[in-house]
Design a protein that fits this description.
Length: about 575
């Protein structure tokens, strides 16, 4: 019997049509029951005859609360009570029926669908195809450029979310990728850059459909760089892989021994296309140096370390256990959970690394890599290429040294000799697995340097709390990577930092001004100046910036927009 009632309940609630039919049936049965009841009781209670028609009229008048006319006044209190019961039960049932019938219609009528075209013509704008975490990070990185941005998404719910999130700051258009009218509605023919944040197959189809209607720079975002050739043949000018870049960044945060001599490197920012050793004294570099156990800075304040006074490098940003410090005070203590962003002369990088940040070498430093997907493979080939032996943990058997199984399994971690490793790179696709693997690895080897991948912004803080020394947020790295390509014609974005802060490089395109004038009028902080055979780190207020000089500036979005407009 219970089973039948369960099936009946699911049947009733499985369809709105069934609900409507049931409510109408109950409504008419209620009116019929009250009509019969009133026809029988009225003559007894009021001592007056009544017809079936009048009885039905009374019931309808009661339920709809329109009044009784000739039947009033009632002589018996029970008639009054009966009328009250009819009113309450009748109006309750009506309130159940009316929303069921009208609410869906009103909801559809009043619900705003995502826009299907931009409100006006656009020129030299950026079209981003696809909406997700990568798109969100990309838009955040592009905001500094003062470009019009259009997001095109064919899923209605995703387009609604985008339109609700960005409102007027970014245009959102809902349209089918295979419909040519979608591209005309976003003025594809006038666009300056097209960025495809969709899967490789969809990207190829879209590129083949739009490449004849636009001369825009087309950038395709892929998981695997092996698809590069095919998308370029389709018409993409750039093919970028955030996963590959994330893997290299994680690898370069393991050790410092070769960072400063290995050529272009994610840990050294702002590198020129061609550098001659002869001009290194007039060239500034921004480097990110993790503080490793056993090095001189560990456990000391920035004032005690004296990096600027000793080596000419200014620490303008510090990350410490997931917390961030812009222009940190000299009293801040540096520990092995810290990473320092420094700006200084390129010809003194080797000096500062070797004297301050290299721990005593006590043999081979091995790394354990959890996950051998796109990110894990990029880490593996980068580290092994630099002579660091790696052991891989993956669900599938891989043709490399390591263990097969779940990285969350303590026995698998021990089989990969996590207790003997110096580094652990956690590079799995799921954040919950990365967090738990980080917890276990930290418990098994407290001195381990752990570098982790995060796929969602909310996971970054959790990974730091779980014991990670450095966390690379995949969508943010992807957004920064793409934005640097897009903005390269106007400015050079060197670093994207938390809280929408950035470090940019820009030439002064006006007459000479002082550092004080720039900082007072823009709010941005000038970290360094290059030009005329000189390189100045942490320039003073009276320092002159000459026309054509290159400035390195730190600021938030609004401050840097003012900086770009004024300089």
């Amino acid at each position: 019997m219970v089973r039948r009632r369960g099936l009946l309940w699911r049947f009733i609630h499985s369809s709105a049509d069934v609900k409507i039919a049931l409510y109408f049936l109950l409504f008419f049965l209620q009116m019929l029951a009250y009509t019969v009841l009133f026809y029988q009781l009225y003559p007894v209670l009021e001592k007056k005859p009544i017809s079936w028609q009048t009885s039905l009229l009374f019931v309808v008048e009661t339920i709809t609360t329109t009044g009784y006319g000739e039947l009033l006044p009632f002589q018996n209190q029970y008639t009054v009570i009966l009328a009250i019961i009819m009113m309450l039960t009748g109006i309750a049932l009506i309130f159940m029926i009316v929303p069921l019938l009208i609410a869906p219609y009103l909801s559809d009528l009043l619900r705003s669908t995502p826009p299907q075209r931009t409100p006006h013509e656009l020129r030299n704008h950026i079209v981003i195809i696809g909406y997700g975490e990568l798109t969100h990070a990309l838009v955040e990185s592009l905001m500094i450029g003062d470009y019009d941005i259009v997001i095109v998404e064919q899923d209605e719910k995703a387009a609604e979310e985008s339109a609700r999130l960005y409102r007027r700051s970014v245009y959102t258009v809902w349209g089918n990728y295979n419909d040519p009218s979608t591209w005309s509605s976003v003025w594809m023919q006038n666009s300056g850059t097209v960025i495809l944040c969709v899967d490789e197959r969809t990207a190829a189809t879209i590129i083949l459909g739009i490449r004849e209607m636009t001369s825009a720079k087309i950038i395709a975002v892929v998981d695997k760089l092996s698809y590069d050739r095919y998308l370029r043949e389709a018409g993409a000018e750039y093919v970028l892989s955030p996963k590959h870049t994330t893997g290299r960044i994680l690898a370069r945060h393991t050790d410092l021994a070769i960072h400063h001599v290995s050529g272009p490197d994610p840990a050294v920012f702002g590198q020129a296309l061609v550098d001659s050793p002869d001009n290194y004294g007039a060239v500034l570099r921004i480097i990110h140096l993790p503080v490793l156990p056993g090095t001189r800075p560990a456990g000391r304040s920035l004032k005690e370390i004296g990096l600027f006074e000793t080596h000419g490098f200014y620490p303008f940003f510090m990350d410490k256990s997931g917390k961030f410090f812009f222009l940190p005070k000299e009293e801040e203590i540096v520990d092995p959970s810290s990473g320092l962003f420094l700006i200084g002369p390129a010809n003194r990088i080797r000096e500062i690394v070797e004297k301050e940040f290299l721990p005593a070498h006590d043999g081979t430093h091995a790394a354990v890599i959890a996950g051998f997907g796109d990110v894990g493979q990029a880490v593996y080939y980068d580290l092994t290429g630099r002579g660091i032996p790696c052991r891989v943990i993956d669900q599938k058997r891989q043709p490399v040294e390591g263990a097969t199984g779940n990285a969350e399994d303590e026995h698998v971690l021990k089989e990969a000799r996590i207790t003997d490793a110096s580094y652990c790179i956690v590079a799995l696709n799921r954040d919950d697995v990365n967090i738990f693997t980080t917890l276990m690895a930290r418990g098994l080897n407290p001195t381990l340097r752990i570098l982790a991948r995060a796929n969602e912004p909310a996971s970054v803080d959790k990974l730091y709390r779980a014991g990670a020394d450095y966390v690379a947020l995949l969508p943010r790295i992807g957004g920064q990577l793409i934005a640097r390509v897009v903005l390269s014609d106007r400015i050079h974005v060197i670093l994207d930092l938390p809280d929408n802060h950035k470090v940019i490089r820009k030439h002064l395109a006006r007459h000479a001004v002082t550092v004080q004038w720039i900082e007072e009028n823009t709010g941005a902080r000038i970290l360094g100046i290059e030009g005329q055979g000189r390189a100045v780190t942490r320039p003073g207020p009276a320092e002159q910036v000459q026309e054509g000089d290159t400035m390195v500036a730190l600021g938030d979005l609004n401050q840097l927009k003012k900086f770009i407009r004024l300089c």
